[in-house]
Amino acid sequence: MRLNPAATDREVTRLEGFSDAVFGFALALLVVSVEVPGTYAELIDTMRGFGAFACCFAIISWIWYEHNLFFRRYGLQDGLTTFLNIILLFVVLFYVYPLKFIFTMLLGDIFGATRPAGAATFVNGATLMLIYSAAVLVLFLIFALLYWHALRRKESLQLDALGLYDARTGVWRHLLTAGVAVASITIALVVPRHSQWAGIIYSLLGPLHAGFGFARDKHRQRFAKS
Asked: In terms of Cα–Cα distance, which of 174, 168, 179 is closest to 204?
């Protein structure tokens, strides 16, 4: 990916600094409900819950990386970028709670940690996946819109042919993730009694992105030589 020359050598803007603070706050929300254990048994139960925290930390860090990557590449600070960024940050803060609930519930079964209250019914599972997947859908649609906006600003960003190709790749890459979220929502709505598949379908993200990235990189190499 060729970076915008104006964006590669600059200080972090107030918008990016504010965004980083919100991501830090989102990570803090993952641990604020963890009480200091008073007994050895409570300590062990708390330690069992760190698997869920690690998974949530990794996912929030991934979203932050995608956010940071966009602003490092393009450095846009216009009104539409700011508006989309604010919505994205709001959804990130909302996303923390269903994210933590899901992984606490799933890994609680595996490691024997305390599960969230009322986490056992099929209806709750379907509703939970609807909430979770709706947040994923909005997040990655916003990322796709940000890259689309960068394409619209190609003259001011001084994007060459490769830069345009990479920006289009960014749009489709995030739409791919949003598409998996749509599939998850569809499963949760159509077959709520099998809502576990609405979560399992996210395991396709790895292979899908690997295949997409491999194909786009090969095409990019041929494109760069032509």
From this structure: 179
Give the pLDDT of the chain (226 residues) as one tens digit per residue.
Answer: 445 544 545 567 888 999 999 999 999 888 776 666 677 777 777 677 778 888 999 999 999 999 999 999 999 999 999 999 999 999 999 999 889 888 887 776 655 555 555 444 444 788 889 999 999 999 999 999 999 999 999 999 999 989 999 999 999 999 999 999 999 999 999 998 888 899 999 999 999 999 999 998 888 887 777 6
Task: Give dist(CA 103, CA 90) in Å, integer.
Answer: 21
Distance of CA 71 to the CA centre of its chain: 16
SS (H, E, C) 29-63: HCCCCCCCCCCHHHHHHHHHCHHHHHHHHHHHHHH
Residue ranges covered by each domain of the chain: 5-225
Closest CA to 151 of 216, 84, 88, 73: 73
Answer for the pair 199, 129: CB distance below 8 angstroms, yes or no: yes
DSSP state of 9: S
